[in-house]
Amino acid sequence: MQTKDILKNLFSLSFILSATLSWAQTWEVYDAELNLKNRLLYQDITLLSEDVRIGKTEEGFFLLNSNFEKSVSLEGKEIYQYLAPWILVKNESGIGAYHEYGQKVLELKYDEVEVFFNLLLAKKGNEYWVYERGKGTTRSLGILEEAYIGSRGQVITKRNGQYFLPLTSISHQAFDLIQDHGGDYLLAKNQNGYGLINMEGRIVLDLVIDTLLHTRGNFYYGFDEDQYLLVEGDPIKANVRYNSFHKITFEDGLMLEYIHGKLRRIMKEDGILLDDVGMTEVKLLEQDLYSIKYRDDKLGLLGRNGWLVTPTDSIAEIKKGSSGFFPALSLNGKWGFINSNGEWLIAPGFEGVQAFENEHAPFRSGNYWGLIDKSGNRKISPEWEEINITNDGIALAKKSGKIFLLNTQGNQIDEEGFEKICRLPNGLLLAKKGEKTGLISNNGEVKLSPIFDRLIPEGQFGYQASKDGKSGLVSEEGENLIPIAYEAILYDEFENLILAKSAYEPIILIEEESSKKKRKKGQ
C-alpha cells in the first residue's frame, strides 16, 4: 500500500474517532475533601438511590457499580421511571422493567406499568399482565375495563361492571364495588350489602351492612337495619366499637349523634369524643379541632384530648392558637387573644389576627398587616400587604410585589426587597432578585450576591451554583470550590462524592507535513 493511501486511511480513522468521541462527556469525581478522585467517560449519569446508578453512553444505558463501572446493560432509549426496586425503561415499542439488581422482568412492549414492591402490573391496550417476583412469572389477567394496585398491594380489577381480587383466594368472587382508602382494608359491596376485606383477601366483615363509609385510618361509619355503627377493621374479624339506635350523622368528616332530635354527642372514629347537653352548633375547623356553640351563646374550642378553651360567653368566633394565646372575635366585631379559660389576654381591637409565632403575631388594620408582641404592643406598623414570621423570629413582609426582611423591632433589614425568598433547613435564605438568586442570612447579611441562575444546597459541600448555562460549587463564604464551568453537578450523598460533567472532545491529529519532511529529496 502506498504511503498516501496509508495516510488517507489514517485521516479517515481520525475523523471517525473524533466524530464518535465528540459525543462523549467526562465526569470528574471529587471526594469529601474535593480532591479529584477519578474521571469517567459517560454521556450522562443518573443517581437513583444508594445502590442504583445509571450511566449512558453511545451504546445505551448501564447499571453502574459503586465505582461507577458498567455492570449490566439496560435496553431502551430512556430511563422512564424508577420506583424502587424497579427501573422502568422505554423505547419506541413501549415500556419494560428491570429489577435494580439487573434482572429483566418485563419486555419493552407495554403502554403502562404500575409497581408495588415485588409486584408489577402492566397494560397494553385493554389487556393486563401481572408479574410476581416470588413466582418469577408474568401472566395475563385478560381484557379488562380497569386494573390497579391498591395501597397495600392488592390487585383490583374490573370486568363487565364488576370488581375482582385476582391474586387472592376469592379471585372468582364478584363485587359491585371495591374501594381502597389507603388503610389496611378494602371496603367492598355485593348484592347483600357492604363489608371489609383484609390485605390477604379474606372477608373480615361480612357483606351484609346496609351502609358503610370510611372515616379515618382503619375505621368506618355504618348503618344497618335500625342502628348506627362505628367499625374498626381487624385482620381476623372487624370490631363494632360503638353502636346506637339514635341518629348519627357523618358529613365532611364531622360525626354527631342526636338523641330525640337534639344534638348530644360529638363522635370520634371509635366512639364518643364529647357528651354534653345544650350544644346548638359544631364546626370542624380542622382535623380534631372543633368550635362548639351552646344555647346560652357560650363558645368553646375542643381538641382531641378535651377543651382547649372552655366555653365562654364573651366571644363570637375562636381559632386555633399557640403558646396559650387563642385568636378570638369579640361581640363588637374586633379581634384579640384569649386564654384557655376564655379570658382576654390581649384586648379585642384589631380587624384581624393570626396565631403567635416566636413571641409575635400578625395583626390587620384596614387592608394592611403589622406585628404585635404578647403584651399587645405594636412592634411593626400595619403597612404590609402580607406578613409572616420565620422560626427564628424574622418577619417576611410583602409590599408592591416585593418581599422584605424585618426584625421583630420593626426595622427593615434590606432596602430593595426580593421577588421570592425561600428558607433553607440551615436557617439561611435563598433570595431571588430579578431573575437571579443569592443567599442571605436571617439578619440580612448577604452571603452570596444574587448573581446566580440557580443555587442548590449540596450537603457539606456548599451550594451548586449555575450561571449562563454552566454549573459549579461555591461555599457559603463565596469561595469557588469547583469552577462554574461544568455542564452539570451531581451530589452523591450516599458515597459523599461530587460529580462534575464537562464536554470531552479528544481529536486524533495526523500531520501530513511531518511525514513529508522525512522524505528524501527526489523520492
UniProtKB/TrEMBL annotation:
Domain of life: Bacteria
Sequence intervals crossing the membrane: none
InterPro entries, per the entry: WG_beta_rep
Signal peptide segment: 1-24
Protein name: WG repeat-containing protein
Keywords, ordered alphabetically: Signal
